[in-house]
């Protein structure tokens, strides 16, 4: 990969990048729900992504990205982060990275320019997948929450005598 020099630049500056990103997410009105999460936790999550960017782009498989971002989506849903704010935070993560690269990296040759374009394509693919699988994680968490609410309602109906245990059990097996 021709853009490996840029990936290493990002990884070396992961702490500064993540600090700036965490501040941006916490101050943006489009990501106000993230203020529920301690700043250190946001920064740690961003550092983990930026520090291991080479692995995510070059070694991780589609199923690795799916597992990771479905879990992140489900966790953010459980933390009360609204879906649109989660998606915006992922976009901020990508954009923050590109602003950094525009400031720090300059292509001195046609070959380096090709490397930058290659990296741009890989990053876009990665962040597109992060959003897609994160949304799937949100949807799964919501379905599980609704199922849990229905089960609690059935248990309450049995407890107060509105439904028999037999009816509840037969409805749950369907």
Structure description:
The protein is an all-alpha fold and 174 residues long. It has one domain: Orthogonal Bundle (Globin-like), CATH 1.10.490. Helices cover 80% and strands 0% of the residues. The protein contains eight helices and no strands. α2 packs across α6, α5 crosses α7 and α6 runs antiparallel to α7. The model has no long low-confidence stretch (mean pLDDT 85).
Q: What characteristic shape results from the CA principal axes?
A: elongated
CATH fold name, please? Globin-like
User: Which percent range describes the beta-strand content?
Assistant: under 5%
Broad CATH class: Mainly Alpha
Distance between the termini: 52 Å
Radius of gyration computed on alpha carbons: 21 Å
Structural class: mainly alpha
Domain count: the total is: 1
N to C succession of SSEs = HHHHHHHH
Helix content: over 70%
Please identify, by name, the CATH architecture.
Orthogonal Bundle
Q: Average pLDDT, to the nearest integer?
A: 85
Q: What's the CATH superfamily, by name?
A: Globins
Largest sheet: none
Enumerate how many helices there are, as a single number. 8
Kindly state the number of beta strands: 0
Q: Uncertain spans, ≥5 residues at pLDDT below 50?
A: none
């Amino acid at each position: 990969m021709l853009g490996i020099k840029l990936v290493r630049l990002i990884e070396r500056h992961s702490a500064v990048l993540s600090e700036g990103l965490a501040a941006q997410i916490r101050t943006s009105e489009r990501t106000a729900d993230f203020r529920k999460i301690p700043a250190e936790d946001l920064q740690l999550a961003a550092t983990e992504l930026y520090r291991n960017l080479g692995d995510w782009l070059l070694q991780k498989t589609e199923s690795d990205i799916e597992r990771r971002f479905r879990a992140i989506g489900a966790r953010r849903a459980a933390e009360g982060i609204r879906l649109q704010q989660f998606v915006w935070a992922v976009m901020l993560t990508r954009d923050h990275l590109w602003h950094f690269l525009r400031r720090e990296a300059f292509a001195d040759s046609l070959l380096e320019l090709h490397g930058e374009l290659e990296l741009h394509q890989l990053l876009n693919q990665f962040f597109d997948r992060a959003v897609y699988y994160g949304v799937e994680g949100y949807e799964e968490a919501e379905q599980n929450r609704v199922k849990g609410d229905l089960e609690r309602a059935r248990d309450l109906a049995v407890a107060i005598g509105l439904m028999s245990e037999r009816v509840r059990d037969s409805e749950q097996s369907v």
